[in-house]
Amino acid sequence: MFDRHEGGEEALLVHIDFHNNEEQEDLLEFEALVISAGVTPLQIVTASRKTPHAKYFIGEGKAEELAQLVKETGASVILFNHSLSAGQERNLEKICECRVVDRIGLILDIFAQRARTHEGKLQVELAQLRHLSTRLVRGWTHLERQKGGIGLRGPGETQLETDRRLLRGRIAQILGRLEKVAKQRDQSRRARVRAEIPQLSLVGYTNAGKSSLFNRLTEAKVYAADQLFATLDPTLRRLDVEKIGTLVIADTVGFIRHLPHDLVAAFKATLQETREATLLLHVIDCSDERREENITSVESVLEQIEADKLPILQVMNKIDLLEDFTPRIEKNDECIPIRVWVSAHEGIGIDLLWEAISEILLKSHTRKVLILPPKYAGQWRSYFYNEKMILSESISEDGELRLEITISHSILGKLIKKYPYLTELMIDE
């Protein structure tokens, strides 16, 4: 679609230090992104500036130095740890004679590699097209207006206008497909809400160990690797847990500093699983020196998707990388668990994590004992058994069934409203 220099596997990395800038990007994270994209970094070019250069972002002298480095190293792509304007990318490509990709373009490329499901591919393409639409000015600049023919003569349409029209059409088509996917997700979500099934959603900075923890909790085999954005498509598993009953656990895409707004918008359907969760498990790499910054970044994204008001349990993962550290649960002044220290990779502290999850979820549940005469025993035992609510059961000499159950306050209220006689069958213990 564009007259562009071909991309490659070997790259020069460019990182500029802007003083007193809160939006400063992290160099180590940038290197991890590059490696996750499957690119070999040849050399890192760093510099300091007060403000970006209007034409080249890095300054004219630095741009010429970069062009010389391209010739010496044979690099086929230059990766910037910053967001560049279309004009800056075009000017740099002209002087360096190789492809230039900014931070957003790099993240989009990684997402394109990771997408596996139909929905994930649509979401990535939507984000790419929205990003591309701001850079159409560089395409087809050498072409004249389209030529007319007999019956078609006139001023014609420029290739740029054609590209924009085609992009708008494709974006509208993808939005339509994603809307259908969103409706299907809504139907499943509404069914879970009606059934009062709690949903746990794993959130956290990319590479914090969410997929490893998900596999440990669910005994699933979700792809987990020591790289950024190893998980892109959401995965849900239904579990039957003692004392809680049935619940759903969702593994979601990892967050990152300054996550592009186009990506947040494109992954709206995916992030909906996070926004409507009963409890968020915020997985944190406790061995990372920048963990406090990572926590702030995740909280910022949660605020963007309006999920910052949900109950959160922090899961301090990778304690096996710390010296002499044992798993434990930390509670607040109200004795509610707020933090659990575990190692998903080694399976350390997982029992404590389940204990904390159960304690939080059971705050919305109550334990009841029912003494059921034979005429009601079969009906209610079957119901509570199917809903995984039974904690214990026994039969008296008179043939009455004693059931100890755990049930949410809302479901109990609905049952009593529909079957008032249940209150007479409940006893306090």
TrEMBL record:
**Per UniProt, what is the name of the gene that codes for the protein in this document?**
hflX
Q: Does the keyword Protein transport apply?
A: no
Q: Which UniProt keywords apply?
A: Cytoplasm, GTP-binding, Hydrolase, Magnesium, Metal-binding, Nucleotide-binding
Xref: InterPro entries: EFG_III/V, G_HFLX_dom, GTP-bd, GTP-bd_M, GTPase_HflX, GTPase_HflX_N, GTPase_HflX_N_sf, P-loop_NTPase
Q: What does this protein do?
A: GTPase that associates with the 50S ribosomal subunit and may have a role during protein synthesis or ribosome biogenesis.
The UniProt subunit note reads as follows: Monomer. Associates with the 50S ribosomal subunit.
CDD domains per the record? HflX (cd01878)
Q: Decide whether keyword GTP-binding is in the record.
A: yes
Annotated Gene Ontology MF terms? hydrolase activity
UniProt record similarity statement = Belongs to the TRAFAC class OBG-HflX-like GTPase superfamily. HflX GTPase family.
Question: Where, per UniProt, does this protein localize?
Answer: Cytoplasm
Q: What name is this protein filed under?
A: GTPase HflX
- Top-level lineage group: Bacteria
Per its UniProt record, what Pfam families does this chain match?
A: GTP-bdg_M (PF16360), GTP-bdg_N (PF13167), MMR_HSR1 (PF01926)
What the entry lists under HAMAP family is as follows: GTPase_HflX (MF_00900)
Hflx-type G domain location is: 198-365
